[in-house]
Design brief:
This protein has one domain (5-123). Helix content is 35%, strand content 21%. The protein is built from four helices and five strands; from the N terminus they run αβββαββαα. α1 packs across α2 (71-88). The longest helix is centred in the middle third of the chain and has 18 residues, at 71-88.
């Protein structure tokens, strides 16, 4: 799916609007997840908190009537990239959210599809590439340990 700059800007703006509700708050909110729900039918991107309170909404033209079965696999890297860019520029600093909290991609039934970004000061989220082959290495280590 090819997306234009306007769509990327709309996604970033929606995330800024969503977290802006937690900027300069006086107390730490106990939000554990910020849910990100894209729709392939309407093209809407809705962002809401644990209490189903809508934080932001926008329409992404390229998503309207997207009829392939791989919709979530296509939008996941786009959303992950937007969140990573915002994190790098410091958009999530100084929020009144207790860490850890996550940005989670959810489907139309609000079931989790993927965790897009984990915000925590001391937790490292490992991806599949880093963990590739770990099972085999651990099995070999255990076998070697038991043989000695």
């Amino acid at each position: 799916m090819n997306m234009n700059e306007q769509s990327y800007a709309a996604i970033a703006s929606a995330f800024r609007e969503a977290v802006g509700r937690y900027a300069n708050g006086e107390e730490n909110s106990a939000v554990t997840d910020i849910h990100v729900q894209p729709s392939s039918e309407s093209g809407e991107l809705v962002i809401f908190n644990d209490d189903d309170e809508e934080l932001a909404r926008t329409v992404i033209d390229e998503w309207v009537d997207y009829d392939s079965d791989d919709f979530y696999k296509v939008v996941e890297p786009v959303l992950r990239g937007a969140l990573s860019a915002l994190k790098e520029e410091g958009a999530f600093e100084g929020l009144s959210l207790m860490k850890p909290y996550s940005f989670v991609l959810v489907d139309d039934e609000k079931e989790t599809v993927a965790e897009l970004l984990l915000m925590d000061d001391d937790t490292l989220l490992l991806d599949g590439e880093l963990l590739k082959g770990l099972d085999e290495e651990l099995d070999a280590f255990l076998k070697d340990l038991l043989e000695k």
